[in-house]
């Protein structure tokens, strides 16, 4: 099918939640490269919004999936699932969690985290502990509870009344958080690098103070690692950068390397809040999705992918900082590992994004002034050089 026909079909039959999409349809991928319906090649510097950590068509992942597809797709969680148990083991071995539950998406993993925080106190007969504090400009998902958790009114307005029990405080303002804590506070939930609102890492000192406060007051600390987890920031999990040990954290995006899967991960004492019948899922952690997760962990360990994310991420950030010195239109470069944002002093992000697409580079934009980079974690320094050269050439055309 050609692009025009696909666009026509979409306009006729698909709900208009994504508006006018970028007029491209990718049909094939290999490594960090994507190919569209017209055969044009692109370097993928967005990875399907931080999902395709291994790039496209990675042999470890595709082989594991082919093998699993030929064997068995789904059984339901009424029966034991080998891959599910093994993937849970991988996450626990490499993290501060003791127990894992699999869902199908990020929002669903966060729903599980919210339910777990509530039921943990309910089972301790502290039924008044129902409230959760989150941050302004956060993003936690699109289900009703996660929309209430998300600190951005634009996602909430049409869906009132919102799920009660959430309040939002400005990021990096410890006093504001302290003031929001009440006897009803069950948990504080945060992204350590706010992704959807423009790649904004939280201050380390702030995060450590919040963790200490939670510890002192018996409040659960939930870290949303859906975007920051699985090596994106140069450590397997972003909380490692901050020296904290969350009670609960959630994963999704890169966990399946492109196959939908989410994970709710918790310390043993908290996880014990869920007893048989308290939570569930039909698809979550099925043999196929967990085969994908296992393959991602295998590739990570065989190819030092997290270390590559740290090294190449630092290299890319340094190159962007250099561009900032050269071009005053760049206001700030932010991020950790291969989760990077470039904020412009003017509303040129969409224009830069379009120009890069034209040159064969896929990047993201947040609003009108922030460029967002999240290439596959296998990206090389040479591929970064090529990207920087093209970005430089375009910035030179923006007159000041
Ligand atoms: C993407 C994202 C989500 C939502 O994940 P879905 O799979 O789209 O439901 C939640 N939290 C964060 C931090 C995210 O980046």
Radius of gyration: 21 Å
Total strand segments: 17
Low-confidence stretches: none
* Coarse morphology: globular
Assign the structural class, choosing from mainly alpha, mainly beta, alpha/beta, alpha+beta, or little secondary structure: alpha/beta
Helix content: 40-55%
Sheet-strand content, in percent, reads 15-25%
Give the integer mean of the pLDDT values: 97
> What is the number of helices?
15
Q: Compute the separation of the termini in Å.
A: 43 Å
Cofactors, ions, other ligands: pyridoxal-5'-phosphate
Side by side, the strands of the main sheet go: 4-12-11-10-7-5-6
The biggest beta sheet reads: 7 strands, mixed
Please, could you describe this protein's structure?
- This protein has 400 residues and is of the alpha/beta class.
- The protein contains 15 helices and 17 strands.
- Strands 4-12-11-10-7-5-6 form a seven-stranded mixed beta sheet, with helices on both faces. A four-stranded mixed beta sheet has the order 1-2-3-15.
- Bound molecules: pyridoxal-5'-phosphate.
Features:
17 strands; four-stranded mixed sheet; alpha/beta; 400 residues; seven-stranded mixed sheet; binds pyridoxal-5'-phosphate
Q: In terms of topology, how is this protein built?
A:
Blueprint: H1 3-13, E1 26-30, E2 33-36, E3 41-44, H2 47-50, H3 59-71, H4 82-93, E4 99-103, H5 106-123, E5 131-135, H6 144-149, H7 153-156, E6 166-169, H8 174-180, E7 185-190, E8 193-194, E9 200-201, H9 204-217, E10 220-224, H10 239-242, E11 248-251, E12 262-266, H11 268-271, H12 287-303, H13 305-326, E13 330-336, E14 339-344, H14 349-358, E15 361-362, E16 364-366, E17 370-373, H15 381-395
Parallel strand pairs: 3-15, 5-6, 5-7, 7-10, 10-11
Antiparallel strand pairs: 1-2, 2-3, 4-12, 8-9, 11-12, 13-14, 14-17, 16-17
The structure holds pyridoxal-5'-phosphate.
């Amino acid at each position: 099918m050609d692009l025009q026909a696909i666009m026509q079909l979409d306009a006729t039959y698909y709900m208009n939640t994504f508006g006018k999409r970028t007029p491209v349809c990718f049909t094939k991928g290999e490594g960090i490269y994507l190919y569209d319906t017209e055969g044009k090649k692109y370097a993928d510097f967005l990875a399907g919004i931080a999902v395709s950590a291994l790039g496209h068509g990675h042999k470890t992942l595709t082989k594991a999936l082919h093998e699993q597809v030929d064997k068995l797709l789904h059984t339901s969680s009424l029966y034991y699932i080998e891959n599910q148990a093994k993937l849970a083991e991988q996450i626990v071995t490499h993290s501060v969690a003791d127990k894992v539950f699999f869902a199908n998406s990020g929002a669903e993993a966060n729903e599980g985290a919210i339910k777990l925080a509530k039921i943990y106190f309910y089972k301790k007969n502290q039924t008044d502990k129902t409230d959760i504090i989150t941050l302004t400009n956060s993003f936690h998902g699109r289900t009703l509870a996660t929309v209430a958790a998300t600190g951005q009114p634009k996602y909430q307005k049409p869906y009132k009344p919102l799920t009660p029990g959430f309040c939002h405080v400005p990021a990096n303002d410890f006093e504001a958080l302290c003031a929001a804590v009440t006897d009803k506070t069950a948990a504080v939930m945060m992204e350590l690098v706010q992704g959807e609102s423009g790649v904004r890492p939280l201050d380390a000192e702030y995060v450590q103070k919040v963790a200490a406060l939670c510890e002192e007051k018996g409040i659960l600390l939930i870290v949303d690692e859906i975007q920051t987890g699985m090596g994106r920031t140069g450590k397997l999990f972003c909380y490692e950068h901050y020296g904290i040990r969350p009670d609960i954290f959630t994963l999704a995006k890169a966990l399946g390397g492109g196959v939908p899967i989410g994970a709710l991960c918790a310390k043993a004492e908290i996880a014990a809040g869920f007893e048989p019948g308290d939570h569930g899922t039909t698809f979550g952690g099925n043999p196929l999705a967990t085969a994908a997760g296992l393959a991602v962990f295998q590739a990570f360990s065989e190819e030092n992918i997290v270390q590559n994310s740290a090294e190449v991420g630092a290299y890319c950030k340094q190159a962007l900082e250099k561009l900032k010195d050269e071009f005053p239109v760049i206001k700030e470069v932010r991020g950790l590992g291969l989760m990077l944002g470039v904020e412009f002093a003017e509303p040129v992000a969409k224009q830069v994004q379009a120009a890069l697409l034209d040159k064969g580079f896929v990047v993201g934009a947040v609003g009108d002034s922030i460029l967002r980079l999240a290439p596959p974690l296998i990206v090389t320094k040479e591929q970064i050089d090529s990207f920087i050269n093209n970005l430089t050439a375009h910035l030179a055309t923006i007159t000041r």
